[in-house]
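Slide 14.
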Amino acid sequence: MVSIFSRKKIVQVVNEPVSVSDRVPNTAEVKSREQDGTTTSEQTPIEKPATTGPELIGIEDFGKVQLRVGRIVAAERVEKSDKLVKLQVDIGTETRQVVAGIGKQYAPEQLLDKSIVIVVT
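Slide 15: predicted structure.
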C-alpha cells in the first residue's frame, strides 16, 4: 500500500484488490449468530444497544412545539442552590416563570433585560 500526501487529504493506493465479501459476513451468518449467540474466536457477540437516553420525537411533534422569544424582567437566586436562578420572562402576551441552572455562569443582575428563547406549552 502506498500513501500519497496532498495538501488537503491523504489518498491510499492499494496494490492488491480486496473483495468486500471477504470482510463483511453474509446475512445468514449474522442471523445464526444472533439466534444462538455463538461466535468464532475473532468475533464478539452482537449486543443490542441499551436505550438509556430520552425518547426522541418525530418531526411532526417537533412542529407542534412553540418557541418564543422573551425578555427577562426579573431574576433572583433560588435559596440553598448555587446553580439555580428563578427568572420572570415577558413573552409578549404574559409573563412566565422559568427556573434555569445557570447560576454558576451568570449573576442575576447580568440577566436583566436579556432576550432568551423558551418553549411554551
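Speaker note: The chain has four helices and six strands.
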